[in-house]
Amino acid sequence: MARVVVDVMLKPEILDPQGQAVQRALPRLGFEGISDVRQGKRFELEVDGPVDEAALARIHDLAESFLANTVIEDFTVKVEEVAEAAK
Amino acid sequence: MSRTPLDTVEHAAATPDVELPWAELGLKKDEYERVVEILGRRPTGAELAMYSVMWSEHCSYKSSKVHLRQFGEKAPQSDALLVGIGENAGVVDVGQGYAVTFKVESHNHPSYVEPYQGAATGVGGIVRDIIAMGARPVAVVDPLRFGAADHPDTKRVLPGVVAGIGGYGNCLGLPNIGGEVVFDACYQGNPLVNAGAIGVMRHEDIHLAKASGAGNKVILYGARTGGDGIGGASILASETFDDAKPSKRPAVQVGDPFQEKLLIECTLEAFKEKLVVGIQDLGAAGLSCATSELASNGSGGMRVTLDDVPLRDSTLSPEEILMSESQERMCAVVEPEKVDRFLEICEKWDVIATVIGEVTDGDRLEIFWHGGKIVDVDPRTVAHDGPVYERPYARPSWQDELQADDANKLPRPTTSDELKQQVLKLVSSPNQASKKWITSQYDHFVQGNTVLAQPEDSGMIRIDEKTGLGVAIATDGNGRYAKLDPYTGAQLALSEAYRNVATTGAKPLAVSDCLNFGSPEDPAVMWQFAEAIRGLADACQQLGTPVTGGNVSLYNQTGEVAIHPTPVVAVLGVIDDVARRTPVAFQEEGQLLYLLGDTREEFGGSAWSQVVHDHLGGLPPKVDLERERLLAEILISASRDGMIDSAHDLSDGGLIQAVVESALLGGKGARLIVPDGLDAFTFLFSESAGRAVVAVPRSEEVRFNDMCGARGLPVTRIGVVDGDTVELQGEFELTLDELRTAHEGTVPGLFA
Amino acid sequence: MTARIGVVTFPGSLDDRDTQRAIRLAGAEPVALWHKDRDLHQVDAVVLPGGFSYGDYLRAGAISRFSPVMETVIEQAKAGLPVLGICNGFQILTEAHLLPGGMLGNDHLHFICRDQKLRVENTSSAWTVDYSAGQEIHIPLKNMDGRYVADEYTLDKLEAEGRVAFRYVDFNPNGSLRDIAGITNEAGNVVGLMPHPEHAVEPLIGSGRTDGLPFFTSILKKLVNA
Fold first, then answer.
1. What does C85-128 look like in DSSP terms, one character per residue?
2. How far apart are CA B214 and CA B210, in angstroms?
3. FRET partner for B666 with CA separation of 20 to 30 A, picked from A42, B281, B399, B573?
4. How confident is residue B436, by pLDDT bands cut at 50, 70 and 90?
5. Euclidean distance between the first and final Cα of chain A, in Å?
6. Neighbours of A (≥3 Cβ pairs closer than 8 A)?
7. Fold of the domain spanning C4-225
8. Environment class of B411 (CB within 10 Å of its CB; exposed 0-12, middle 13-18, buried 19+)
9. Is residue B203 flagged as an active site residue?
């Protein structure tokens, strides 16, 4: 068992009003020195069986065709091992 | 509670000395003793969960019941009433074979804790009440009250509540057509988030919450059950928050409007195929409420296997499953041969549906878990025989002093310029300012039948495309008036909603109410409550509009300080042809403006006294119900016969507020003349009840005057629709641009 | 014989019945289509209605785009079947790549409902022939995710090819690039827009105007003359 994480972010050139709203609130809350905030989505996929290249390729396709809309969004795929003890 | 061994009925009988956490679950000692007496043994943990949640203030109305009876005892004869108080919502005959169900409910405390989800699930709950009657929901309305507009916490609560109502209601496809937004420091920490809904059905489609016919199956469908709002009904909704005990704030339920939309479509399809014997939505008290109410309203008993309830969290105990307030769930009773078809429809809509039990011959509600019987009760004792309190009440000692502090004696403007400045101050004050920034976050077009929506006097929906038959709804309440005199305040709330419905051309038929008050344990609050109900019941009787249902919300207070008594009244009306509706906006220049009704020096509780003097004292405006009835008849006749082109009721803010709104909405100004016998100040700002301003085309002038004269309604010509200013002759002139900036800038300035 | 126009109901579609009514008022025959059914039942055109299909979860229109009915709609749209996407339907069309660009949350972060002024810029598409070029109309708008975005190249191309069908006038309600309210595909058979023409087809109801009716009379004319 492993967890694969797909992070989806708006492309850098696309306006992110949610991120901007968060950033505007920061000084009010006393957090200084943060020059930009962008908000994205995180998908955690619990994968049965080994996360080999073939499995990752399938997840990559899934992310590209469904989890992200590549017209407006970029994505990354990474494997996150899950400690057996936690299961 | 120990889970081993399972606390079955048998185990409870064998271990009478086991201590149960009845106090933590919100039961009083004598209430717990009453449970033991009913059962003849100690309750099991599951039974205790059910009793505690069903006997909470929120579910049992134990403090309010003795007063609420007046709505039944004083109910006027009404041919329109098809289903009255006691069901999920009342049902009214609106003609042509159509029936309309409507109700207003509160979701106050949850909306303070988590504004977005609290408000969203409030919409979800009231809509399920409407579906449970067999109706297709056609519109929602949201009367809202917040703390001071410029208080920092209002900036947290209001945008969240508005986004929650929009986020849920818009996603369900229900036009939001009315409601109110009121600011007052008394609601700081206790915002009032009331939600109303209307549904339409044919007479033969009315469904009731009852389980009849031994062998019929009980089907739970909709969302899976999770740990949402466990104990919410008994703890969250009934007691004041106590900062010392954060554990008393359980997780607020989270709504899924998409699931609810599927639930609506799937339920209506099942109704259409006549698959449902009885139905109940799962709201406060979840399965405890649904099973005990269905069983106690039917002819038999019920057996439920709790193991069959689909769970979102497999670690839930049976007690938690019974108390869970997970949203978007319903319970239907279906004949065995129709179960397959029912499940098929659910599958079509991707709704999870499970048979969890059946109706039995006996009169017991029995619930099983892992093979053991954990509940064996007479369902009536859970659902209907809760405690009834005769709480002490007494007119508070400060009431006389408050009433003696006469607002009519406040300093009035002495120059034309001062008068003008006060007009600007009034129309730009948060309560009187345009709420467009809020209402534009609600969809009011969806379903394609919206004839009128806010800021019109009432929302109006067409229900038959061919004939144009429509219904109108208005909600009103004025806590300031009710604080000065709760009896009169409640009657003024009814009068205003009644008048608002008539102003749009619809005939008022029936009433639903949401009664928001402080702690019933305070005799002063209890007096306000008793007086308000007495006033409302008396007025409903006189106006011939029965109360069909509603909701009571108590404990709206922080420490010793209660909110203003705030009865919110919804009036439902019917109009034969929506093409005859009357809008607020001025339609054409040159039309004559008439003031209907009598204007007196009445400033107690007025918007003027609040905005200009930050004052609350004296007596509220006088109520004359016969005058309200006459005014309504005139407005309806004038609308039907095409004698008026626009109309606006006069209420808070008085005449000038109404004229400014009609002018801005129509984009046409007005020239006003102070009538004989009145001074300019009283003319503009008085809040005398039983009044409206109408615009009459010149061709109808004689006919309109003759009608008012023949029926004895005072009518005064006060000016003409004209130009791009609002002018009071000899006093001042304000351009529409100036007024628009003042009126529309306030709310976005505060919250955008 | 009149034209048969299909209206797809997805789970969470809201304006499907309203769209059927608008089609009826225009004189065509509305046909209800179901998202799980690949069969388009020989309709002459398809409307993807407004709403919150699948709750707008993931992205507006992203899940519906993969429904069985859309497989056929995509295939036939490429072959010339007239398709109109309104609001959520527009979002589905961009997710399905039948129209370029994408839809994001309104720049002010609120749902917005208003009677919106638009300028008609393309009167040759299947859904706009009954308008005149440059005509200004009022159509109700109500959405959360109405911000049209595309890269500069795509935007320039849309402009150059006259494929910006509608533009917001006086007020841009959601931050859409170049005030774009609606676009067409190259062939002009597929049109998507955020405002709701089906809510402007009867006097008294909704906005009280009938500025949206030409959408439905346009397609009727096109189909009956074809």
1. EETHHHHHHHHTTSSSSEEE--TTSS-EEEEEEEEE---SSTTT
2. 12
3. B573
4. very high
5. 9
6. C
7. Rossmann fold (3.40.50)
8. exposed
9. no
Q: Is B445 on the interface with C (CB under 8 A)?
A: yes
Task: Using CB atoms, pick whichever of B256, B261, B442 lies closest to residue C113.
Answer: B442
Q: Where are the domains of chain C?
A: 4-225
pLDDT-based confidence at B210, cuts 50/70/90? Answer: confident
Best C36, C52, C108, C198 member to test B by mutation, with max B CBs in 10 Å, is C52
Low-confidence ranges of chain C (pLDDT < 70): 1, 226
How confident is residue B232, by pLDDT bands cut at 50, 70 and 90?
very low
Distance CA B333, CA B330 (A): 10
| Domain annotation for chain A: domains and CATH numbers | 1-12+39-78 (3.30.1280.10)
Cα–Cα distance for residue pair B48/B243, rounded to 1 Å: 26
pLDDT tens-digit map of A19-74: 888 888 888 788 888 888 999 999 999 998 888 999 999 999 999 999 999 988 99
Rg of the Cα atoms in chain C: 16
Q: At residue B291, what are phi and psi to the nearest 5 degrees?
A: -70, -45
> Residue B576: which pLDDT band, with cuts at 50, 70 and 90?
very high
List, in sequence order, every beta strand (DSSP E) within B477-622.
507-516, 547-553, 557-558, 561-562, 566-575, 592-596
Report the alpha-carbon distance of residue C155 to residue C157 in Å, rounded.
Answer: 5
What are the chain C neighbours of B222 within 8 Å (beta carbons)?
none
| pLDDT over 90 at B686, yes or no | yes
Which candidate in C35, C110, C112 is best for mutational testing of the B interface (most B CBs within 10 A)? C110
Q: Model pTM?
A: 0.93
Cβ distance of B448 and C113 shorter than 8 Å: no
